[in-house]
Amino acid sequence: MTPLLETQGLAKSYGALAVTDDVSLTVLPGEIHAIIGPNGAGKTTLIAQITGELAPDRGRVLFDGNDIGGLAPWRRARLGLARTFQITTLLPEMTALDNVALAVQARSGTSFRFFGAARGEATLRALARAELARVGLAAAADARCADLSHGEHRQLEFAVALAQQPKLLLLDEPLAGVGHADSGRLIDLMRSLKGRL
N or C: at which end does the chain have fewer Cβ atoms within 10 angstroms? Predict the structure, then answer.
């Protein structure tokens, strides 16, 4: 079986500080893995190297059997590689629905007249509503993102990532700063994705 993701000897240093050093891993389709370590161990740096936001000093990243080392992050996303961030990266003045609709729009390759186009396309909005329902935020679709709780921001970030229809989803500290009740919802959501992503 071809690995969905494979890193070979990834390394990234800042001066004398080696943040990632010869990291090799393999993820097969349907598997779930966790990378653990204390703050500053290099987990976010590793994810950034895999997604193309940060170029490694050496090593390779293969996705679905292809070397993606020279591809920009948006090209990697188009291949099916999505991520969430340790600090949420949502558009706070837009609604939850608009945030997800923009992700659907980017994935579908429809016109990029940006906000107006996403708000006016019924198909985009229907797909976005479906993703919000999948993460348990259907009732918050029309709420302004800035008015949502931290836990709801995490759920919304999942919806944005899932709207990209990824083959592989990288989660950077998905439970950071989330309370007990919200943690349970997010854990249930992650379990529901097992075997599909």
Answer: N
Could you give the CA distance from residue 155 to residue 135 in angstroms, rounded to a whole number? Answer: 6
Residue from 89, 7, 14, 18 nearest 47 by CA: 7
| pLDDT tens digit sequence for 78-109 | 899 998 876 667 888 899 999 999 888 877 76
> Kind of pairing, strands 58-63 and 5-14?
antiparallel
In tens, the pLDDT along 4-45 reads: 999 999 999 999 999 999 999 999 998 889 999 998 899 999
Contact, 4 vs 167, CB < 8 A? yes
pLDDT value at residue 150: 85
| DSSP-assigned states of every residue in the chain | ---SEEEEEEEEEETTEEEEEEEEEEE-TT--------TTSSHHHHHHHHHTSS--SEEEEEETTEE-TTS-HHHHHHHTEEE--SS----TTSBHHHHHHHHHHHHHT----THHHHHH-HHHHHHHHHHHHHTT-GGGTTSBGGGS-HHHHHHHHHHHHHTT--SEEE-SSTTTT--HHHHHHHHHHHHHHTTT-
What is the bridge-based pairing of β-strands 81-83 and 168-170?
A: parallel
Q: What residues contact residue 58 under an 8 Å CB cut-off, 6+ apart?
A: 9, 10, 11
The residues pairing with 168 across neighbouring beta strands, listed in sequence order, are 81
